[in-house]
Amino acid sequence: MSSGFQPVFTTTHSITGGLTRIERARGFLAAAVLSEQWVREMGRRALLLEAHHTTHIEGTSLTLDQSRRLLEGNPIADADPEDVRELLNYRKAFDFVSEYVSSGGSITEGLIREIHRRLVDGVRGGAAGPGEYRKIQNHVVNSLTGEIVYEPPPAYDVPIMMTEMVDWLARGQEVHPVLVSGIAQFQLVHIHPFLDGNGRASRLLSTLCLYRAGYDFKRLFTISEYYDRDRPAFYAALQSVRQSGMDLTAWLEYFVEGLATQLSEVRRRGERAIRRDVFIKERGLSDRQAKALSHIVEHGSLTIQDFECLCPDVNRRSLQRDMRAMIEQRILEVEATSPTDPGKRYVFKEGWLGPEL
User: Fold this and answer.
1) Which member of 52, 116, 190, 192 is catalytic?
2) Which of 84, 160, 226, 271 has a 20 to 30 A CA-CA distance from 265?
3) CA-to-CA distance for 266 and 324, rounded, in angstroms?
4) In the chain, what are the domains?
């Protein structure tokens, strides 16, 4: 008789150090006075990055800008329809998970199947079997090389293994919630219960585990960006578990480091936003000037066209006056442009709050 799912791992110094960094970021986000507008903007940014990178890992070819435009409701004429559907499906699945967390529901097989259904609904004519466990053997293929990297358990083992995983998640754990999240992500992709979409489902399950445990970090983080940045390292970390007799230690070291890295970036952005807000108040900048400054903080520079997009109901002359006023205050300067880029770009004046903001 099976004793159920029992993950094996060692809590190494690397894992402990990463968890400490994660807890510090969590404490900062809980205590920091961040403007609601900034949190909304960063939340939209995190969703964009996660939707883009989690689908990009699986082989979609959309650029980040195309993904942004699609999520804003703007069609892309030359985009692959399957890529578009997978991106928009992710948002629907994420919204479903967010609502489910708010309801306080537990993690069940039915929930995981519904997440999968929403992720692959309508993709490739339904060939991915939305919400249905696979009935045949499948393989994990490296989307970069086409190489078969893993043969999952046989189909008849899938229902048993899924039940055991969900039972383990339902039990009271003495395992840190971040590690539970990493274990759940690996185990779902290891079982590979669906014909397609297992990677996306596993990463969304991992996010769900964090959210339910109170580790939502104001929903400002993206983990798939870290994986997509170096996919060979991501695949190697997953494969390390199978190469070490199903010991999860190396994977959890990678998982914790990835989350800690992404949250450190969120914390840095949050600290910059706080300094920015204090600066705006001290200098008595207008709402329009504050928008311009915020754009430069996030993107490094601002054109008058960018400013018009930020303030669509304001004429260009008024916006130019706003910029001139900040130049006169020695906050901004005009960046030197090349002959092929004649438009003015406004940046922070050298030596004036550059490192701070």
Assistant:
1) 192
2) 84
3) 32
4) 13-266 (1.10.3290.10), 284-348 (1.10.10.10)
